[in-house]
Design goal:
434 Repressor (Amino-terminal Domain), Rossmann fold, 12 helices, six-stranded mixed sheet, alpha/beta
Length: 343
């Protein structure tokens, strides 16, 4: 059997100390770029790969950051993760350690995953999207020293990055009311899901923003103008538009607060029903994904600063792991309204 290559073999070939080789392989900033390149070149020639299990045992780290979400089909979550990945490669940290976990929107699955991470030391930090942990779990994370970061939620004991969903929905509803009239159709994620399913904080906040804009204009809230969705999908968008048409609801505009993908479904069904956008029915979305500006007509929508959020998530996780944060970080980001031809 071929002898396993060790750091000692690389050090002898490079005529360097074992410690220097180890630091070079781990991108230690104290090692010059010239030395790093030299060591990497020899490591490649020898087909050397470090023993990760020994490395993790010695460091007490897993080299993994867990990202737990209700589902990863959501553009909001998947786009943020893409920027987290870019940040990882730019910094050279946790390049292969971005580990996603889905809960299928089940509260019990979320709780089990959070326990598995903290009690089994399955990650160096945990990022939780669009969900809240129990206070008991938060206390366990604090005791263990494992950082817990919330996205779209905030609570004591965790770092957080919160998007001001209420203000995003308020600004958009106000704009549509002032430009088109009082009857604004509103499509949002479930605010009262079945037992055992997660309540999405963002949906509750966007509903508050919608109602706030109505109240300011002294317009009575009309449940007939509101539809709830579970999967935030293109197909649900088409179904919502068909429901509005079948019920013959008077609409001056539609605000798809459940996302741009859903807004695309609404627009497609509206066109199939012979309606023109925006002449017959203006449509606005939420997220400002890349495809929004490529539609015909381009979609008016609420801009989520995905890159800013992704960078903040990664940086907070890394700084927490490295012990650089002395207090909780609670970042609030205000989304902007992007006006295009659809409304």
């Amino acid at each position: 059997m071929k002898k396993k290559v060790t750091i000692k073999d690389i050090a002898e070939k490079a005529k360097l100390a074992k410690g220097t080789v180890s630091m070079a392989l781990n991108n230690d900033p104290r090692i010059s770029e010239e030395t790093r390149k030299k060591v990497r070149k020899i490591a490649l020639e020898f087909n050397y790969y470090p023993d990760e299990s020994a490395k993790k045992l010695a460091s007490g780290r897993t080299d993994s950051i867990a990202f737990i979400a209700p589902r990863f089909t959501s553009p909001f979550i998947s786009i943020i993760l893409s920027y987290v990945e870019i940040r990882a490669f730019r910094t050279g940290k946790y390049i292969h350690g971005i580990t996603p976990y889905s809960t299928a929107n089940e509260i019990a699955t979320k709780e089990e995953l959070l326990k598995k991470m903290v009690y089994g030391r399955k990650a160096d930090a945990v990022v939780l999207f669009s969900m809240k942990p129990s206070q008991e779990i938060v206390e366990e994370y604090k005791k263990s020293g494992m950082p817990l970061i919330l996205v779209e939620n905030s609570m004591s004991g965790c770092h957080s990055i919160t998007i001001d969903n209420m203000n995003g929905a308020y600004k958009t509803t106000k704009y549509l009311l002032e430009k088109y009239g009082n009857n604004i159709g509103f499509i949002v994620g479930e605010t009262n899901p079945p037992l055992g399913q997660e309540v999405h904080y963002a949906s509750l906040e966007r509903m508050k923003g919608y109602k706030k804009a109505l109240n300011e204009k002294l317009i009575e809230y009309d449940p007939a103008l509101v539809q709830y969705v579970r999967h935030y999908s293109y197909e649900e968008g088409r179904e919502c538009m068909a429901n509005f048409m079948n019920k013959k609801v008077k609409l001056d505009a539609i605000f798809c607060a459940a996302g741009d993908i859903l807004a695309m479904g609404v627009m497609d069904q509206a066109v199939k029903d012979g309606l023109r956008i925006p002449q017959d029915i203006p449509v606005a979305g939420y997220d400002d994904i890349q495809a929004a500006k490529m539609l015909n007509p381009p979609l008016t929508t609420v801009n989520q600063p995905f890159e800013e959020i992704g960078n903040a998530v990664f940086d907070i996780a890394i700084n927490s792991i490295e012990g650089k944060l002395t207090e909780e970080i609670h970042t609030v980001i205000d989304p902007g309204l992007i006006i295009r031809a659809s409304a």
